[in-house]
Design a protein that fits this description.
alpha/beta, 13 helices, globular, eight-stranded mixed sheet
Length: 476
């Protein structure tokens, strides 16, 4: 089984349709697949073989998609190396996954002894290929997994492990996600996220269904609006940050998104304020998606009910959910089972049977399920602040702080305390135009009105920015 072969077969009826567009460049499905096979041939001559671990350092572009498909067609495993990572972090990925090859855009790689490859493939880009000699053979069982991707998790808590996804898992999870997204050849997808972190369930699904993908990452949000007007976009896949910019921009009118059938918010918790402002301005409710690299996209909030704001919805048809060790408020650790779960962790090596408990994956997230089966995520089990035995969920407190005028975003964390265990504290980024370093008048009183007194932060610090992972999540 090979995802590239499946895309080849599923695209037979629309080979002349535009697959990808980036500014004034565009490529049809036929050209996309032909280019991928040509690149695969060159990589094969360079020694890339089945199950080799091939790092890909490339910005979001048509080239990124072509090269990924080329690697997959050889049944080698793509290891995304985000351009946002620092040099030391890139080296960490290279070392821990023990790459066989690193294929990189030379402009991103900097000084390197790697050889130029793929001449003439992309005007203005020069790709290099560094062959490495693995320190150790891959773990027992790696070869039989039919690996397609190895992706480091976001690293919000603990050490990233390198999630292995097989071709079979990718096919299963894209099919499962599409029961909620319902992508067709009539869709034009407006794309702004990082392909290094969002590719498997989304880009590959869009290609499987014959959609046109328009890259709008540069000069956002105006690039997205330009493409909506020019390409008649129907589907947006973005983060709350992007939707907040759209809702707050005075240059973007309320009628600009009237052709959009679905706007999916992912990558982080959707703040209630952002959801409300966006819906009020555009008359379009954001669709919150809850994705996990080990699982796929098991939740997409499709209810259309404003009363359910804050929920990620019910599980999609192919998934099941249960809560473990629920407390008196019904909050427990989220477990998920369904198709396309991870095949293994690369480092330290663990196969699926060791990771799952009777087929259930422990997400590390805490949540509650209401009487109608809607899931509300309240935080991560490792992030819970313990105040005299009472649990404080940072996400809940952050939602209140973020709703206060003048606050752009916040991070709530626990301060060790000899008597109380931990005290909640908050770091706050102010919106543009609000006096830097100035405490917001009334914020503490506002928090006491919205939260139980023990949940209100005891200390507030105004900062210029919050530490985040390369995929945009808060570092806890």
């Amino acid at each position: 089984m090979n995802i590239f072969t499946v895309i080849e077969e599923e695209s037979r009826g629309h080979r002349q349709k535009i697959a990808l567009r980036d500014n004034d460049r565009q490529i049809s499905y036929e050209e996309l697949l032909d280019n991928a096979l040509q690149i695969a041939g060159r990589l094969k001559l360079e020694g890339v073989k089945q199950c080799h671990r091939v790092g890909l350092l490339c910005d979001d572009s048509i080239e990124y998609v072509i090269i990924s498909l080329a690697i997959l067609s050889l049944s080698a495993a793509v290891v995304p190396v985000s351009p946002d990572l620092a040099a030391a972090e890139r080296e960490e990925v290279t070392r821990r996954i023990d790459l066989d090859f690193l294929l990189a855009d030379a402009a991103l790689q900097g000084e390197s002894s790697a050889r130029p490859v793929l001449p003439g493939f992309s005007p203005g880009k020069n790709f290099t290929l560094l062959q490495r000699f693995a320190a150790l053979p891959p773990p027992d069982g790696f070869l039989r997994l039919n690996p397609a991707f190895i992706r480091f998790s976001s690293g919000t808590t603990g050490a990233s492990k390198g999630v292995i996804l097989s071709h079979e898992a990718i096919l299963e999870r894209t099919a499962a996600a599409d029961k909620g997204l319902q992508i067709t050849t009539a869709d034009t997808v407006l794309w702004v996220l990082s392909m290094s972190y969002h590719f498997v369930v989304t880009i590959l699904l869009f290609l499987r269904r014959g959609a046109t993908i328009v890259l709008c990452g540069g000069n956002f949000p105006h690039s997205l609006i330009d493409e909506i007007n020019r390409q008649q976009g129907t589907f947006i896949y973005a983060s709350p940050f992007h939707y907040s910019l759209l809702a707050g921009s005075g240059d973007i009118g309320a009628s600009e998104l009237q052709g959009i059938r679905m706007a999916v918010s992912t990558a982080m918790k959707l703040p209630l304020q952002t959801a409300t402002e966006f819906a009020t301005k555009f008359g379009l409710e954001l669709t919150e998606a809850y994705g996990i690299i080990e699982v796929g996209l098991p939740f997409i909030h499709l209810s259309g009910s404003a009363a359910r704001m804050g929920s990620v919805g019910r599980p999609l048809p192919d998934y099941r959910i249960r809560l473990e060790s629920s407390d008196e408020n019904g909050i427990g650790e989220i477990r998920i089972s369904g198709p396309g779960l991870l095949d293994a962790y690369y480092t330290p090596w663990q196969e699926r049977a060791e990771i799952l408990a009777d087929g259930w994956f422990a997400t590390g997230d805490l949540g509650r399920i209401d009487a109608d089966g809607f899931l509300f995520i309240v935080g991560r089990s490792k992030d819970v602040i313990n105040f005299v035995g009472m649990k404080i969920f940072p996400v809940e407190v952050e939602a209140v702080i973020d709703s206060y005028p003048g606050v752009a975003e916040s991070q709530v964390y626990g301060l060790p305390h000899e008597r109380f265990g931990e005290l909640p504290a908050a770091r706050i980024v102010l919106q543009s135009g609000v006096g830097a370093g100035t405490p917001l008048p009334g914020l503490r009183r506002f928090c006491y009105q919205q939260l139980a007194s023990y949940k209100v932060p005891k200390e507030y610090e105004i900062v210029e920015q919050l530490d985040k992972t390369a995929s945009g999540k808060l570092k806890r």
